[in-house]
Each structure stands twice: as structure tokens, then as C-alpha cells.
Design goal:
This protein has 304 residues and is mainly alpha-helical. Helices cover 67% and strands 1% of the residues. Helix 4 packs across helix 5. The chain starts with a strand and ends with a helix.
């Protein structure tokens, strides 16, 4: 069991206390198993920063697992689990003892870097939305969800990355979170559909003459129609707009932090390239960046 209030209150390179090591390892293992591209980029950070990035990833991934595991009970059961887990996290933020396999690492990282509690609350609110909201009428509605599910992850990362100008870096960080989230949505259309979730805005579907039934047919046949391909191409252009808005933020980061984020930027952007190479068909196979291309992109990130 770990209690908040023992951190240094400032970011430094001090070793992590022994009692926190298991929680940090748990977060690292989640990151390594589920976030391959992001985990690979994180390896480019100074060693003392990596556990804190793993902690944020572990926090996000664990909450996502609660709401996404449709084989582990009813939506009401998952809502109760999310409330209980969120309650433990909020109690830890108040300085109360926390008994949890990963939350001590998250709470420690939040305290050391003085992360905004409102960002964590916004993230948990978006996770709760996933239990009840399955469609988004338009892009502003989807952006409202992504503010908590993605944009705040970018702002939570900033103090760890250490930009020279945190104010100037904030919006690019938000935009990168949105870019990554949209990339995931496009790659995982079929996977999300299996959970009866559609993250492509309904008015975009209508614009291209596509229905949810068309998405289900394409998923069953493992083949996209021309209209679906056009829809995906449109959404890729929207995602690339967020990548472009995020790009100036790379130059505000120091040394290895810049290399790490550049690598993530290139690796995630390459997922969109793979979708384009597949003719904008996200149903035949899941878009994966080949190992040899990932290696080249990492070299490119290292060279600047």
C-alpha cells in the first residue's frame, strides 16, 4: 500500500523508491504489451523519464481495458468497476492510502511533475462516456470526447518532456494527442464496431453515403466499398491536419524528449501511410507498420 505525500514535489533524476517499483513495472509491462509504437519511441527518452511515461500509459490503458472488455460483465458492471477504480485514484490524490497494482506509480508521477488533476478527471469522464455513448453526430461532438481521451494525454506528458516554453507547447501537445487518437480510430474501425462503437462522425458517414450497416457488411466481408474508401481518405486528411498542427511543438522540446516525440510522430503517422497503401481499406487487415520501416523511422528520428 502506498500513500501520496512522499514525493519530492519536483521533477528530478532521483531513483524511484523501492515500494513504488512494482507499480512502475506493472505500468511498463502494460505499455510494452499494448503500445508497441509508443513504447518503442519511449525507449529514446532518458532512463529516468521512461517510468513516468509508462505510468501515464498504464493509467490510460487500464481504464480503457475496464470499459472495453465486453466479455467481463454487463455495461453496468464495467461502469461500477470504473467508478470504484476512479474513486481509488481520487482518494490517492487526496493523500489517502491506495492499494492497487498500478495507481501508486501514477500518483507518484502526478505528484512529482505537479500534473493537473483536471486532466485526469477529464480522461476518466471520457472513459465513462465509452460505456454509454456509441455514436457521435458530428466532428465537434467527437472532439468533445477526444478532449478527455486524447488531448489531455498530450498535456499530461508535457511536464515530463520538459519543453522550453510550456505555454507555447500546450496546443501542439493537444493536437498530437488528437492525431494519435484519430489514427487509432481509423486503424480500429472493425474492432470498435464489434463493440458497437462508431467513432467516425455520423454526418461524415452521411456525406459519403455510408451507413453503420455498410460498416458491418464490410467488416463481415473483410473488404471496403468505394464509398468507405472515400470516407476513410477524408478522415485521414483530417488526422493529418492535426499532425501538421502538432509539428511546431517538436522544436520546443529538448534533446532526447524531442527525439522520442519525433519518433512517435513518425511511427503513428506511418500507420496512416499503411492505410493509404492498402487503398484506404481498413477491413481486409489491420494496418501495421512493418518492422523494417519502423527501424528506418527510428533512425530518421535519431538523425533529426
Amino acid at each position: 500500500m502506498w500513500q501520496a505525500g512522499v514525493a519530492s514535489g519536483r521533477a528530478d533524476t532521483a531513483p524511484i523508491a523501492a515500494e513504488l517499483a512494482p507499480a512502475y513495472r506493472h505500468c511498463r509491462d502494460l505499455h510494452r504489451r499494448h503500445g508497441r509504437s509508443y513504447y518503442l519511441a519511449t525507449r529514446l527518452l532518458p532512463a529516468w523519464k521512461r517510468p513516468h511515461v509508462h505510468a501515464l500509459y498504464g493509467f490510460a490503458r487500464y481504464a480503457d481495458e475496464i470499459v472495453d472488455r465486453t466479455d467481463t460483465g454487463t455495461p453496468e458492471d464495467r461502469a461500477r468497476r470504473l467508478r470504484d477504480w476512479s474513486g481509488r485514484f481520487l482518494a490517492g490524490q487526496r493523500g489517502e492510502p491506495v492499494d492497487d497494482p498500478l495507481l501508486p506509480a501514477v500518483l507518484h508521477t502526478a505528484e512529482v511533475f505537479e500534473l493537473d488533476p483536471a486532466d485526469f478527471a477529464a480522461f476518466l469522464d471520457s472513459m465513462a462516456m465509452d460505456l454509454t455513448v456509441r455514436r457521435y453526430a458530428d466532428y465537434p461532438a467527437l472532439l468533445s470526447y477526444m478532449e478527455g481521451s486524447a488531448a489531455v494525454i498530450g498535456t499530461l506528458m508535457l511536464p515530463i518532456l520538459g519543453p522550453a516554453d510550456a505555454v507555447a507547447a500546450r496546443e501542439p501537445a493537444r493536437q498530437l494527442g488528437l492525431a494519435f487518437q484519430l489514427t487509432n480510430f481509423l486503424r480500429d474501425v472493425a474492432e470498435d464496431l464489434a463493440r458497437d462503437r462508431v467513432y467516425l462522425p455520423q454526418d461524415d458517414l452521411a456525406r459519403f453515403g455510408v451507413t453503420v450497416a455498410d460498416l458491418r457488411t464490410a467488416a463481415a466481408r473483410r473488404r471496403a466499398t468505394p464509398r468507405l474508401r472515400s470516407l476513410v481518405a477524408y478522415e485521414i486528411s483530417r488526422a493529418r491536419g492535426h499532425y501538421a498542427a502538432a509539428r511546431p511543438g517538436l522544436d520546443l522540446l529538448p534533446g532526447k524528449s524531442r527525439t522520442c516525440v519525433r519518433a512517435a510522430y513518425l511511427l503513428y503517422g506511418a500507420i496512416l501511410d499503411e492505410i493509404e497503401h492498402a487503398g484506404h481499406d481498413v477491413f481486409t487487415r489491420r494496418a501495421v507498420v512493418p518492422v523494417h520501416r519502423r527501424a528506418r523511422l527510428l533512425v530518421r528520428a535519431l538523425r533529426g
